[in-house]
Amino acid sequence: MRLLALTVVVMVAFAANSVFGRMALVNGDMDAMGYSTIRMAAGGAMLALLCMLSRGSVALGGEGRVTGVLSLLLYMAAFSLSYVGIDTGIGALILFGCVQITMFAGALISGERPPFTRWAGAAMAFGGLAWLLWPGSAVQVSVFHGLLMAASGIGWGIYSLIGRKAKDALQNTGANFILATPAILIVWLLVGVGEMTKQGVILAVLSGAITSGMGYALWYAVLPKLSATTASVAQLTVPVIATLGGWLFLSEAVSWSFAMASAIVLGGVALSVVPRQRGLSRS
């Protein structure tokens, strides 16, 4: 139950990142790359402080460091750049679809053999997510921005797979954020620095320091105890939680179709993890 509770906390943190991002970007308080850069820097600063207080130092090396930094950078930079030219709903579908494919492929390559119920639950949950987020028949997807979002999903999938091997979640996450910050800063400068408001900066700092930095550290602590496929399916709850957050904090509308689609998503997740006693353990 403790592992389940921690996983729920992580999913809420991920959803809060979406809410913070909407509040800053939709209202025009900051450009997308500026938001991501400040978010990354704030996460790195918070994690460095926690490492110094709890470990006495910050270890920037370690196994899988290059892959961890590059995949985190790919996820954050491609995510921000893709949403310049793609709708939120279809973007989330591409993102989580690619996360699913990447993590299931990584699991199979590493020798994990998910049971039929997990495959069925994943398909059911993603189907509910498609119903929830599909923007309609008139949608037109920019190929370039769609590919960017796909790259972002692959980046996050790889980052999560790497996290399953983390021996010190706090040090690993801190090093990833600290080393990725200069690179994303360069990308921001190359694409052009836009305007920013005090509220936008505050939201980026909150997202970076709390729900990203500390949330990702907790994710790295939870991942070694989850199978790759279970971790992948669990993340399909994030858009549902984020939509609820938008309703609570941004007065965004919800409908009966949202309630039914959410029930399908949650039912699929339950089907994936509940039937087996070891569903929340490494397979």
Automatic annotation (TrEMBL):
Pfam family, one: EamA
Entry GO terms, CC: membrane
Membrane topology, from the record: Multi-pass membrane protein
All copies of domain EamA, residue ranges: 147-273
Membrane-spanning intervals of the chain: 37-54, 66-84, 90-109, 116-134, 140-162, 174-194, 200-221, 233-250, 256-274
Protein localization: Membrane
PANTHER family named among the record's database cross-references: AMINO-ACID METABOLITE EFFLUX PUMP-RELATED (PTHR32322:SF9), INNER MEMBRANE TRANSPORTER (PTHR32322)
Listed name of the protein: EamA-like transporter family protein
Organism: Thalassococcus halodurans
